[in-house]
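Marked as duplicate of an earlier ticket. Keeping the data here for the record.
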Amino acid sequence: MSTTSASNAPPVLTIDGPGGAGKGTISRLVAERLGWHLLDSGALYRLTALAAVKHEVPLDEEAALAEVARDLDVVFVAEEDATTVLLEGQDATTTIRTEQVGDAASRVAALPAVRQALLQRQRDFLQAPGLVADGRDMGTVVFTDAPLKIFLTASADERAHRRQRQLQDAGVDASLSSLLKEIQARDARDTQRSVAPLKPADDAITLDSTRLTIPEVVDRLTELLTERGLAPDT
């Protein structure tokens, strides 16, 4: 199904890839540089999982979880350097980034009815002047006609080290071996699920960020957008 084929549709940059590859940071910085809108699709699944836990909905009851997803009371408040996420009026910005919520979100995201319930909500983020869409299936399912698709990856070891540094910066001790196991388990679940498995779109550019700095990745993506006439020379 075509999702961005209209000639006057704003441009979309999709950035898919496994957890810990840097999609969130990179997507936010590219969107800020270009003045585009940002879709953090992973946040929607994390919020669905958090809302389910809050309302004691079991994570294996697909129909009930889909209802939670459809009725999600969420507000994204854009600020200068970050985005505050409100779930049912309460600040959930930090909570949805915990490993526990991330694991629950990965389980919830494997359910077809939940993915369908969130599909249109994600597409509604597409507005002028453009959109940077961060997720697992942005280029393969949600915005299949996006003019530039990136699959951002990094080695599992590097992603575990990055997550450990994030937690340490937040004052949380974390075992590197445990984080690596969690990342590997999540990768397996995301790539092997029957609906919208994690994989590069056929026309995606794969970018390995293992040995790249954040500014280097941001520069490369803005260069690609400029080369394709999707954004002004920045």
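See parent ticket for discussion. The radius of gyration is 17 Å.
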